[in-house]
Amino acid sequence: MPVGEGGAGRGPEQPPADLPADPSPVADNAHELVLRSPFVLCRRCGAYVSAERGAKRLKDLCPGPLPPLDRCSPAERERRRRREKLLQGLHPTSGASPGA
Ligand SMILES: [Zn+2]
Q1: Residue ranges under compositional bias (Gly residues) (predicted)?
Q2: 100 CA → ligand 1 middle, Å
Q3: Which of 30, 50, 92, 94 has a CA-to-CA distance to 78 between 20 and 30 Å?
Q4: How far is the CA of 33 from the centre of ligand 1 (A)?
Q5: CA–CA separation, 64 vs 68, rounded Å?
Q6: What distance in angstroms lies between residue 20's CA and the mean position of ligand 1's atoms?
Q7: What is the C-alpha to C-alpha distance for residues 40 and 55, in angstroms, rounded to an integer?
Q8: pLDDT tens, position by position, 20-44
Q9: What are the beta bridge partners of residue 41?
């Protein structure tokens, strides 16, 4: 005598798979962008974008973090200084508060 389809049929629902919790790592050659309105700054290399400068440098690959201060060339030292200013919310060259 055939059993047919009289059984319960469906199995228990599968729980949704856990999403991976690890943050996606930033690629070595990608800028790590921080918004400091009206500027967008790369935290690694110090390149930044503003309305007057445009995004020229940020279109290139990120050259990586700046070397320590005692090993910086003058240009790198300047880039470091501007990055610090930007991270403080100040204008990178004049040091003025952009909101003022
Ligand atoms: Zn960069």
Answers
A1: 1-10
A2: 28
A3: 30
A4: 8
A5: 12
A6: 27
A7: 9
A8: 555 566 567 899 999 998 899 999 9
A9: 34, 48
Q: Which of 94, 90, 100, 96 is nearest to 36 (CA)?
A: 90
Residue type, 52: E
What is the whole-number distance in angstroms between the Cα of residue 63 and the centre of ligand 1?
6
Does the model's pTM come out above 0.85? no
How far, in Å, from the CA of 48 to the mean position of ligand 1? 8
Phi-psi sector, 40: left (phi>0), alpha (psi -120 to 50), beta: beta
Span from the CA of 34 to the centroid of ligand 1 (angstroms): 10
Between the CA of 68 and the centroid of ligand 1 the distance, in Å, is 16
For residue 73, give Cα distances in angstroms to 30, 41, 76, 92.
22, 20, 5, 18
Per-residue 3-state assignment (H helix, E strand, C coil) for 55-90: CHHHHCCCCCCCCCHHHCCHHHHHHHHHHHHHHCCC
Q: Separation of 98 CA from ligand 1 center, angstroms?
A: 22
